[in-house]
Amino acid sequence: MEVRIEAVAKDFDRHPALHEIDLAIASGELAALVGPSGSGKTTLLRLIAGLETPGRGRILFGEEDASRLSVQARRVGFVFQHYALFRHMTVLENVGFGLSARPRALRPARAEIDRRARELLELVQLGGLEKRYPPQLSGGQRQRVALARALAIEPRVLLLDEPFGALDAQVRRDLRRWLRELHDRTGHTTVFVTHDQEEALELADRVVVMSQGRIEQAATPDEVYDRPATAFVHGFIGESSRLPVRVEGGEVFLDDRPTGLRADWEGPAELFFRPHQALVGDGAGGLAGMVTGGRRIAGVRRVELELGAAHRRVEVDLPLAQSCAPGTLLAFRPTAFRLYPLAGEGRPADRAPARQLAHG
Ligand SMILES: Nc1ncnc2c1ncn2[C@@H]1O[C@H](COP(=O)(O)OP(=O)(O)OP(=O)(O)O)[C@@H](O)[C@H]1O
Ligand SMILES: [Mg+2]
């Protein structure tokens, strides 16, 4: 089922939680909503579910205006971060709950509800645990029961709000791989919220980056990582360093000194690069910074450098074998970078229009 959000806005007590948002989620797509706390992710999910009504705009399920539909009629499945299962119901009863609670005319027979619930428990790989009670399950198993329960009503759209938020890293990794496989098999249109950008990049067909009630970018994981639409997205997705620079005559200056980088732009800008996008060492040229610290991150050594009188901090990756004592002066040059025009017309840099000024 395709979900289209058209110019939807939502205020709470006259404070905008969402400014006019447009977003189309294709049928069968797995979309991830990411963004800082308070950026409007849950609000957007609740609007799709029908748990909130939009102040303006409309939400379409296929060609149908969903605002005319009740929560039940939308046939949306939910899983929230702390989605309480019913403690005094067995796993099987929990999964069948949505069907048992239907009005009599629409309710399948008991045996049919149990059959479907068993089928779903197989699907979420919990076959054999039907008779257990929620307190007798691990956190990951409970989340899978919650997912089976959401799937039981045969939802047209599946909405997950930080479904794996409370679980440890290894269980999260297992569950997200499993969720991706499940999604590929069942083909539900799925929107999930996560705080974990690695999860979003690994799992989603499309990543929707939100900030302050707006969508900054909605694009494939590769695109949001490699071609962030705004400075905000660049800073939010993945690791990056930022430096305030000025471009004059096609040359990039930091603190009035040439960096050796060139750009097709004039005026003040913010330069972004990622730690692995830097050539480091003698002759790298352009920029130099004092080593202030470093740490091992998996297969590389990430070194912190301080630049110039303003003590601006950047991070670059070195091979593990290369040690680098604090106090050493290290030359480096970003091998790929992006510039975002700074501030004009009273706009903060993070709200700078999406434009690519340079991509080395
Ligand atoms: N029921 C409500 N009443 C008043 N304000 C609300 C309500 N729900 C959300 N808000 C406000 O709307 C904004 C967006 O909240 P929302 O819960 O959508 O953020 P979020 O992106 O899900 O954040 P988090 O990552 O912390 O879950 C916040 O400023 C929040 O305080
Ligand atoms: Mg939330």
Automatic annotation (TrEMBL):
Q: Which PROSITE patterns match?
A: ABC_TRANSPORTER_1 (PS00211), ABC_TRANSPORTER_2 (PS50893)
Residues forming the ABC transporter domain are 3-237
Q: Name one Pfam family in it.
A: ABC_tran
Q: Which SMART domains match?
A: AAA (SM00382)
A cellular-component GO term for this protein: ATP-binding cassette (ABC) transporter complex
- From the Swiss-Prot or TrEMBL record, what is one GO molecular function term? ATP binding
Q: Which UniProt keywords apply?
A: ATP-binding, Cell membrane, Membrane, Nucleotide-binding, Sulfate transport, Translocase, Transport
GO biological process terms, alphabetically, are: quaternary ammonium group transport
Q: What is this protein called?
A: Sulfate transport system ATP-binding protein
UniProt source species? Albimonas pacifica
